[in-house]
Every structure is written in structure tokens, then in C-alpha cells.
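USER:
Before I trust my own judgement here, I would like a peer's view. Write it directly below this note and I will take it from there.

ASSISTANT:
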Amino acid sequence: MKVKDIVNKEIVNLTNCEQEPIHIPGSIQPHGFLIGLKAGSFIIDYCSANTTQFLGLSHTQLLGQEFGAVFGNESKELFIDYIAQDRMLSSLLLKIQLMERDFLCTVHQSGSIFILEGEPVNTSSQKANEVYDHTSQFLSYMHTTHSLQDLCSLVARGTREITGYDRVMIYRFDTNYNGEVYAESCREDLEPFLGLHYPHTDIPPQARDLYLKNLLRIITDIDYTPVPIYTIDDDEQDKNLDLSLSILRSTSPIHVQYLHNMGVGATLTISLIYKQRLWGLIACHHYSPKNISPEIRLAAQLQGHFITSQIDVRQANEEYEISRKVNAAFDKLDTFELTGDPQSFQNLTAQPELLRLCNATGVSIYYNGEVYSHGTTPSVKEIRFLADFFNQSYANSSFHTNKLVDLIPDHRKLCENTAGAIYHSLGIESQNCIIWFRPETKTEVNWAGDPSKSIILDKKGLSPRNSFKLWKEIVDCTCKPWLQPELDTAAAYANGLQRQINLIKITEEEQKYRKLSEMLKEANAELENMNWISSHDLQEPLRKMQLISSHLLTEEELPSNIQHSLTRLNFSAEKMRTLLQDILKYTRLKYSEDSFEKVRLTDLVKEVADDLSQDDNKPTEITVSDLPEIFGVPFFLKQLFSNLIANSIKYGKAEEKNFIHITAQDEAVAYPTEQDELYHLILVKDNGIGFEQKYAESIFNIFTRLHLASQYNGSGVGLALCKKIVKNHKGHITASSTPGEGTEIRIYFPVIST
């Protein structure tokens, strides 16, 4: 049988150090042994090289053997039962006797391999009651502390008492995974690290991933010699073992060197997971080799669980107090009655509660081009610039930042005075908005060494930074971060303010329409007066003028020039009367209250045609085909066809007989611009003088004439009246013509729905 080691011999360099495969080192630390068993057969497929030290059997003696055959069926059954009860990776370790020696083992599964890691039972370990006492003491911390930081400080002290490490730190990450020593307990002779920051590169992404999977990590001696893992060489390509969940996994050489540079001899690290994210670590350092029993490790890990269980509670308590204050401001501000008056907006911004909503130092409302500000804010010009910038970048939405300079780096001077902002749009079709401001808060960050020099390349090769001297960074153009209760309250108020503004706009529109309605009523009243004047006061003098002129014309001895003048006077008076009557018809048309009814167009049009075809001055032949029934007002329909036929007669050719054909399309059609509606199409076609097609629309405008009054009499109202009648019947009317060839009028009446 051939065996081989699976030690990862890849060289780590500056280009791949962040992808170092630390989960498959192929080796373990020497304070325990590792055996990998095939699931199902329990054949030993992997084995660490130090089993002789713990079990008296070498890896070559164990590989390929069945677990029960080597260690006895009783041990095998105990192992199988442990797995069956789903105790792998639980706080209840497997206590098992192998080769007449007692071991405490952690068990987990990696792919198709069960991994058993054993450490000798430490007879000098703390008794269970001592561990219990420490844990019980910790429970009292939850009742004697209020802030999360106070709780972490007590946990650091309690963990150090349980484990005996020289230094215990509670390490908290920011959003970019830069770390801060949030709480600490250490020997009095050691320099404290409390408050120091460490760059995210100190713990690379792949290491953070393993901290999420494996919540406890121990290194008992930084100067250990890695123990290789062997396996059967069965020609399986890239045969390896994922040790992500292993307690004995060998450590990255770069990390070992990093700890050497810090002067650390042993470490214990416990992951703090909050909302499925690595919130922080409990980092325990000892300045000489140190191992603790599995029971003590679990007790320390339990303290980590206590912290993460309290993060929500402590943060909720802190946020509750903030929420209580900002909500009180919101409730008071919610009673403010805003109007469209500019002074009302100025009074609103002056309310101190508007700043307390989100603990801002300044606020500005941009409304209809005007800026209303209170507190410490940028200048009016700068606010207009910000409103325009935010509207373009975050139209109809909101955003917040505690570092405005990242968004507008070319306006650093503005950002030195106004470092942070909360922006909310107050309208879809405008730049209206509300912006809260916070000033710059210069912050001094103490780093444990220059964060830009985390990995260096020296004459010995690749190594982590070796300088941990205090390195200070001044953070400017940054304000105190906006807390979630502040953001929530600002958003709630902005929504309420937008509703108020919408109501103001609606009220203003209502007032505008009310004024327009009043003006329309006045105009209608004036129009009624004009109608009355047209129908009575104006027509009466015209009748008298015609009567007098007609009487004078009967006198035989009038000079010819006087007779001519009286004839013209009579003609003008008649023309004026006709115009007034047509105007009266046009204006009264929309006020008609006659009810619509079914109308047989064939009968109605024939009646009109019979009346008009008897004109002795112009011989006219009018043919009327079968026309459909429509829904309309008979009186107005008679006026419509009377005007159309009269128009065709009037504009007939002097030397020819008039032919007028009135027909209907056999099937309902759609109007060109309304494909969803069906109409009856009526055609009125004549052989008159016609007109140029460019006038096809303008002829339906009131007072429009294409010919001189001396050539053809009329008021210019007739076709406008026709268009209005058709429109009131929810139809359409168009005209097409060629000069000298006649005109065709097309009338669309809606099809009667059954």
C-alpha cells in the first residue's frame, strides 16, 4: 500500500496571499491527532503523522484499516451512536477510549469523510462546578450592565478568569472589516490595546469566511511544527481534506509570523456572529505556549454566545432611547399646520423639533425655487446646488451619508462645514426637497501600525507587517453616523411633509378652478346678455331700417343715386340681421337641453332636401340614398343638413345645374384617429366650384370665408355651426375638395349601441 502526505506546498506571494487556501493546509497542530474515516465503511482514509505519540500506532499501520478492527467494536459503536444522535460540532464532545487511553474528541463531516480529532483528557483541568460558577457569574453581567460596551468589558474580564490568558480583547469590525479593540482585560504589566484599530487586511476574506464556519480557533504554541496528514495513494486526482471546521487545523505561515511579530506565544479566538455576519472576535493572547481543555474552550465560547445574544437587546435599548426622543419631536411637529404661504414654510423650518427629529444641526426646505433654512446650513447658493445635484442623482427618492465629500469631491470646502446630510425628495415633477445637515466631526483613529503596510516583501520573502507602533490618522470631512431611528423618523416626517405639500397644491388648484368657474359664469351671463341684445335690442332697429328704406324705395320720384343708397342700406341691414341670427344659433347650441332620440336620417334629410331643391334661381337636383338611424336631436340635425345643402347650392357653378348626392357607407367604419370606435359615415357630395384642400380644416372655423361677400353672401358661421352640431353628437366632420370639381363632406355619427 502506497501512502502520501497532502501538505499544501503552494508558495504564497503578494499576488495570491488574499486567496491563500488556508482551509486545506494538509497538516495539523501537534497537541492532538486526526483520523479521517470513510462514511459507511469507516475505513481510515486519512491519518496525521503523530498517531504513534497518542495511540502507539503509526499512520502506516492505521491507513486502510477499519475503525472497529483497530480500536474495537465498542469504540466503533460509541462513535456511530454519537453521529446518529446528531452531536457532531455540538457542545457535547465525544469522550472515547482508544488503545486504553481516554480522549476528548470533536467530530465533524467533510464531504464523504468523518473527521475525528482527539486530545488527551487533561486530569488537571478545571472541575465542572468551577466552569459553571464562572458561567453563572456571567449571567449576572446581563443585569448589572446597560451598554453593550460595558457588557463586553465584563465578558473580557470573565473570559480571562476562565481561560487564564494574559490578554483578552473583544474585537469589533466596522462595515469594511477594519477592527477595533472594543473592550479588553490584560495583565497589569502589559501595554493596553483598548481603542486601537487594525486594518481589514490583518484578517483576509478567506480567514473571515472560516471564522463564520468554525466559531473557535486555538493555537497552543506559535512555534509548533506542523504535523502532516497522510492518505492512501489510490491515484485519486487532487485528493485533499477540507479542514474548515477542524479544531487542530494548521495555521497559515503568514498568520504565524504576524503573531510572532506581536510577540504572542499562544492564542484562542472565538467568533461573534450577529445576523449571519462576523460582528467581531474574542481574541485571547498569551505570551508563552498555552493550552486549555476542551471544556474550558466551550465555556469561553459560551461567553461569546452570550455577547451575540445581547447585541440586539443592548442596541435596541440604546436605539429605543434615541427613538423616544426623536418620536417626541415628531409628535410635536406633526401638529404644525402648513399652508402655501412662504412665511408658513419659514415658520416650519424654525421649529426646533425639526432638527431634533434626527439630531441634526441644520435643515433646509427647497420649495418652488425658494430656500427656507434654520440652524447651521450651507449658503443659499450651495443649498440650491445640493438640491439640484441630489435631484439628478437620487430623483424621487432619498439617501443619507456621513461623508458628503465622497459624493462631491470637487466641493471640499462645502463639505468641511457640512460633512453629512439626509436628503428626501418632496415631489415627482420638481426639485422640492428637505435636507438635514450635520457638521464635520474630526476623528483621531489610533491604528496598531500603518494600515497600508499590512503585508510586506523583504529579503526573507513575504511576511506580515512587523511594526505595531501607534499610528494616528485624522479623519476629516466626516460627521457622526446617522442612527437608524434618526433615519426612520426623518423618512416618516418627509413623507408627511410631502402629503401636506400635495394637499397645498390640490387646494391651490381648487381655488384656481373656483376662480375660473366664477369667471366662466360671469362670461356666460355676459353671453346671455349678448344673446338677448342680438335677438331683441339689435334686431329691432335693423327691422326699422329695412321698413323705412323699403317704404322710401316705393317713392317713384327719388333720384337714382338715392335709390341706390337705400338699396345698399336695405341689403346691409338684411345681412346684419342674418349674421345676428346665425350668431344666436351658434351660441345657443351648447345650451340646448333637448333630449337625444333615435332619428331616421333618410326621412329627415329628404324633408330638408325637398324644401331647398325648390330654389328657382338655381336648378338643383338632390338625391338621398338610404341612410342609417342615429341617436341625436332632430332640430339640430335639420340645421346641419340644411346648412350643408344650402352651402352646396350657394357655391354651385353658375352655368351648370347643381347635383347633390347624399349617401351612406354600407358598413360602419372607424374614424382615422379613433380605431376603437365605430361610426356611420354620411357623404354629402356636390359638383360645385370647390376649394383648395389646404383650406379643408379652416372652413369649419367661425367667420371664415374663402370668397368675397360681394361674390357670395353669408356670415361665415354656417360650417362652424355644422361642426358644433356634429361635435355635440359625439361625431366628426371633414371636407375634401378640388377646385372646379366639387366638394365632399364626410360626417361620422357614432353607431347606436344596442
Remarks:
- The radius of gyration is 49 Å.
- The chain has a mean pLDDT of 81.
- The longest helix spans residues 484-537.
